[in-house]
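not sure who needs this but someone in the group chat was asking about Gamma-glutamyl-gamma-aminobutyrate hydrolase family protein from Salinithrix halophila so here u go. i didnt clean anything up, its just raw.
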Amino acid sequence: MKRKPLIGLTGYHVRGEEGHGGTFRGLPGQGFHVVGHDYIQAVGKAGGLPIGLPVLDPREAKGIIAQLDGLLLSGGEDIDPSLYGERPDMRCWTLVPERDQFELALLREAMDQGLPVLAVCRGMQLLNIAFGGTLYKDVSDIPGGSLCHQFHRAPRWYPAHRVTLKGKELKQWFQTDEIETNSYHHQVVKEVGMGLEVAAVAEDGVVESLRHPDHPQVLAIQWHPETMAVQNERGMIPFHWLIARILERGG
């Protein structure tokens, strides 16, 4: 591949709202599609060309995926519980159903077309739901308790807990059986989707990575490697994995 691989990055779907002192973040009612700077930097550093994807009609997904070399499903808002057979309640934070539907369509098209996919945090949860899995609406719902997975009291690259790698490919890429990761999520995988395999777990048993044997071009992880990469070169490993899968496919 002579040119840089085009990597589609999903992001937040932000609605304009009134701020402090009567100021507005944008015009009242106006929306924005926002891609995290750390994702952009990490994809670029790994050798890809990051392309921000606004939330569009799911029917556009097939044409979008056909133009890309890789897809990155980023973190963000909670996923609509109706997608896994439950109702929203006070444990849910912000819901953006239109983003859910668009990204599910992107993911399914990417898998159909064999496009390499890196699914981060919310992206991993979306993958689980796509295969019929469910989520805990909050980590506090886990029987027996859990670690703090929504760790905002340190820099974004700070390691919050250990993760044990179970998947063979992850062990090869990280060259170890255990790593330390940051953690910025309050929802976690409950029932693993059909056909998916748990590739990593946190110290408390929370699922930290999912793979599917029929879709080896998809890597889903719960932590945020893009923010870890700010201070830790190990954070770049998933992005190098993505570019390597793209080059293998294009070769």
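also The chain has seven helices and 15 strands. if thats useful
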